[in-house]
């Protein structure tokens, strides 16, 4: 196995977890990442890691104690409101016993998770500033692959793993399937230094997160561990809504006002204030997904993980957890072939079958979450789910 050349494209949770697990088993690999360095791009908000998801992968990677140092169990606390401000559920005020399926899911900032994983891999594992253009078979060895980046070519890999997210270029090698618009656009808003600048918003959200679900719209607020808050105002609108709605997104203050005035005007004052108060940044984001249950024909030497394999909307909170379990299972598949590299294609085909079967189950759950989050009774349905399992 020491002579096997493995390229992992993407230094997100999937790619870095895989690299860590392979290195623990003395399997070398190289990770190629489009970011110029670890802090060059915002990694998003906060994510909860599940006992049988991300936490399991971190345990196998020997990183549980490191995770505990950076995770925030208090971030699990949830408030659920109706559009008119009525409180449906508030774990800040009551002690509720969640069903086991929804318990023990501490939050961790995505940036903290990335740094945790980066520190765990060997120096030089990640090659930065590598934006992939395409994967090609080697002309000199048909069992190997070359990676064409914007700034050069890396040659001679026996296995290429695409872990670079929704718009994976590695995916293009195994299938022509591309993500499609989910019907939802979220407007991401930031509030930084909430301890001094946004104390009201911090108290409104509580220790963790605050949600409002309604027909065709939703507001989701999350508190991060870096003294900041992310507010997401989501709407069910056509794919071209960002371009055609008449809101000038380059003028954040005006855009927030129009967003609230046109789509949340009948909401409770506190909910409108939450959107208006998150004033440090504004980014409209269209949400994409791959078809539920889609598969590709296994291709020897190339495979996919995480969003590259099964991107879905965030409305079940499983994306990172699935990605890290994918990495755990792929690492086991590769290591199981030690001394018998000819067995790797079969092992990866079996891995893909199990991964995509699991992904289909969670994609169905996620699509149900999308429907519920943007329905009039979505809040009540979540309360019932949280209390009864």
Automatic annotation (TrEMBL):
InterPro entries on file: FAD-bd (IPR002938), FAD/NAD-bd_sf (IPR036188)
Recorded superkingdom: Eukaryota
Single GO MF annotation: monooxygenase activity
Coiled-coil ranges per UniProt: none
The FAD-binding domain, residue ranges: 6-336
Keyword tags: FAD, Flavoprotein, Monooxygenase, Oxidoreductase
Pfam family, one: FAD_binding_3
SUPFAM superfamilies on file: FAD/NAD(P)-binding domain (SSF51905)
Protein name, entry field: FAD-binding domain-containing protein
Organism, scientific name: Cladophialophora chaetospira
């Amino acid at each position: 196995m020491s002579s096997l050349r493995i390229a992992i494209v993407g230094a997100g949770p999937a790619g870095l977890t895989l690299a860590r697990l392979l290195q623990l088993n003395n399997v070398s690999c190289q990770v190629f990442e489009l970011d110029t360095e670890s802090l060059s791009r915002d990694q998003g908000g906060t994510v909860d890691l599940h006992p049988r998801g991300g936490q399991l992968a971190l345990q196998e990677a020997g990183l549980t104690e490191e995770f505990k140092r950076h995770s925030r169990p208090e971030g699990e606390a949830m408030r659920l409101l109706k559009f008119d401000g009525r409180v449906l559920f508030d774990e800040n005020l009551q002690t509720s016993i969640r069903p086991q399926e929804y318990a023990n899911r501490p939050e961790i900032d995505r940036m903290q998770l990335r740094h945790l994983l980066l520190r765990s891999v060997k120096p030089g594992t990640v090659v930065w500033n590598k934006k992939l253009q395409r994967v090609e078979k080697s002309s000199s060895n048909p069992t190997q692959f070359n990676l064409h980046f914007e700034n050069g070519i890396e040659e001679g890999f026996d296995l290429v793993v695409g872990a670079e997210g929704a718009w994976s270029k590695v995916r293009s090698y195994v299938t022509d399937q591309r993500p499609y618009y989910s019907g939802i656009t979220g407007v991401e808003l930031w509030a930084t230094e909430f301890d001094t600048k946004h104390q009201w918003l911090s108290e409104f959200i509580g220790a963790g997160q605050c949600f409002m679900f309604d027909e065709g719209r939703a507001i989701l607020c999350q508190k991060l561990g870096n003294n900041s808050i992310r507010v997401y105002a989501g709407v069910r609108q056509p794919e071209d809504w960002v371009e055609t709605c008449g809101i000038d997104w380059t003028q954040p203050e005006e855009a927030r006002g129009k967003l609230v005035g046109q789509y949340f005007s009948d909401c409770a004052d506190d909910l409108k204030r939450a959107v208006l108060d998150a004033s440090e940044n504004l980014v409209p984001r269209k949400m994409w997904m791959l078809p539920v249950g889609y598969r590709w024909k296994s291709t020897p030497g190339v495979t996919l993980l995480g969003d590259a394999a099964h991107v879905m909307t965030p409305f079940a909170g499983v994306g990172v957890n699935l990605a890290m379990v994918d990495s755990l299972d792929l690492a086991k598949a590769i290591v199981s072939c030690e001394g018998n590299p000819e067995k790797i294609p079969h092992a990866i085909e079996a891995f893909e079958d199990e991964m995509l079967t699991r992904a289909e189950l969670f994609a169905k759950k996620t699509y149900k979450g999308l429907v519920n989050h943007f329905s009039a009774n979505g809040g009540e349905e979540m309360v019932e789910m949280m209390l009864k399992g």
